[in-house]
Amino acid sequence: MAGTLPQHGSPKSGYSANNAAAVPAITQTDSRDKWSKKMDFLLSVIGFAVDLGNVWRFPYICYQNGGGAFLIPYILMAVFGGVPLFYMELALGQFHRTGAISIWKHICPIFKGIGYAICVIALYVSFYYNTIIAWALFYFYSSFSSILPWTNCDNVWNTPDCTNYFGVDNVTWTNSSRSPAEEFYTRNVLELHKASGLRDVGGVRWQLMLCLFLIFTIVYFSLWKGVRTSGKVVWVTATLPYIVLFILLIRGATLPGAWRGVVFYLKPQWDKLLETSVWVDAAAQIFFSLGPGFGVLLALSSYNPFTNNCYRDAIVTSLVNCLTSFVSGFVIFTVLGYMAEMRKVEVEDVAKDKGPSLLFITYPEAIANMMGSTFFAIIFFVMMITLGLDSTFGGLEAIITAVLDEYPDYFSHRRELFVLCLVVICFLGSLSTLTNGGAYVVKLLEEFGVGCSIIAVGFLEAIAVSWFYGIKRFSNDVQAMLGQAPGLFWRVCWVAISPAFLAYIIVSSLLKAPPLTLFDYKYPDWSITVGYIIGFSSFMWIPIYMVYKLVWTPGSLKQRLAVCLRPERTIPDIHADTLNMATMSQKDMNTSVCL
């Protein structure tokens, strides 16, 4: 894909000082943290973008939407929607060197509520996402056994419906049959049978609470000193999953029946391309996979040198992310083919699980019946934990950077204390997901706490930058950093295609909202209403701030609008004294350029 996209930017730009002649001379103050090495930044971005969803969501969506044929809409949506938005956010953060809240005074002050909405959404994500990592930690601890506990039906949590078909002849699998792995997950890890639903979620599981406490302890000591510590931690958490994926891929390819899974995964169903839902799923998958709109890319790139080649970074990290998703499909489906071979059923019957169930039921079940099952279980759940931690680092860093940059007088010298308070809030907010019915809460937060809210935020961000801030002004910013303005392809994507891409996802999601279910539990109507309230509770800060800004700005309505839409065009302090103002005309400096 990198070969087909327009190239620009100095080949020497980045962390080297050799490109001083290509761009205006830049100096930096020592007040803001900086990445120690370029790889610290790249691994942090890759670690955030490559998460658990790459392992469970992409393979499922791929086979569900036409197998190999799905790659066509996926690549198109990536090239024209996901990658341009990814590049835009990296460039914004690097140029303005500030977080998701205070950046809006440099872009379009009336949209500052977007920054607050991003922080609220990041909090909601932390309330449920770390619980999933805690489940993986519980499995990791349980894997230190010569016989994995989800191998047989002889445990205290098993029911008469438990059916073990591995190594057993003449086993009849019925609709009421439950595998040992499924009962371990639902009855021992989650204890869902002790909850009747969202009305009665039961008590807190102390084992999961301990796991979550350990997760947040790791998170705190990785983030408390800023990018100086998190940039070192990601050398382990971002690279280890690739080692494990490679090991699991080799093991999966050698299993009997693996080829059946691969054929099922990639066999093209060309008629699927005529279905609108396939294109919606492709657009949503690439958006949530790359992660523009979450404020993380703004935060991470704000610690870069001003002349870093963010264009190249966007292409490289996007490619790594998409290829990881594709390879993960082989890791998953070689094992599903093996399970179908063992059960003597079709791959489609085995691959009905999706989401976390794929990682906590289907894959562990296959691992438990391999040679060296303990080893493969341990490394698999280590991979899951590290994949999750990277994304948590990014999500919380988005909040930390945004708040510290917006309120430097209060928090600039109290980062450790602020991070501690934030981690405690996230831990307390996660308690409802640690109950017997916590999985129901996780599903609700995942669907409504993020969902359409973050897509709407990304849509408004793209509109604010391209239409109100002005594509010409933004292109000048990129030229100041890279020595060359973005090409026509990028400008057209930013102005028209990418916003249309996001609007398409929003409208399609609202018009065709499927019923929300988890296992055999159908979410009641009142819980869907609660979900919409949760979603609106983050998005509402955008109109609230708009009204606040208009009311408190002096002057007539026309004057107020002019002030609220015009950026405070002060070049960030770190390079205000040395940036060659000739790169931007005075007209660009003082007026809003709209297309």
In short:
With 595 residues, the protein is mostly helical. The protein has helices at 38-49, 52-64, 71-96, 113-142, 180-189, 206-223, 227-237, 240-253, 258-266, 276-290, 296-301, 310-343, 347-350, 356-368, 373-406, 408-411, 415-429, 438-482, 488-511, 525-539, 541-552, 557-565, 586-590; strands at 517-518, 521-522. It has a two-stranded antiparallel sheet with strand order 1-2.
Instruction: Please count the beta strands (DSSP E, at least 2 residues each).
Output: 2
**Any idea what the radius of gyration is?**
25 Å
Q: Residue-averaged pLDDT, rounded?
A: 85
Listing every helix as H and every strand as E from the N terminus to the C terminus, the arrangement reads HHHHHHHHHHHHHHHHHHHEEHHHH
Secondary structure tally, helices: 23
Fraction of residues in H or I helices: 55-70%
Structural class: mainly alpha
- Spatial strand order of the main sheet: 1-2
Question: pLDDT below 50 for ≥5 consecutive residues: which ranges?
Answer: 1-30, 570-595
In terms of DSSP E residues, the strand content is under 5%
Shape, per Cα inertia axes: globular
Ends apart, CA distance between termini? 28 Å
Q: Summarize the main sheet.
A: 2 strands, antiparallel
Provide the descriptors you would attach to this structure in a database record.
membrane; two-stranded antiparallel ribbon; mainly alpha; disordered N terminus; 23 helices; disordered C terminus; globular; 595 residues; transport
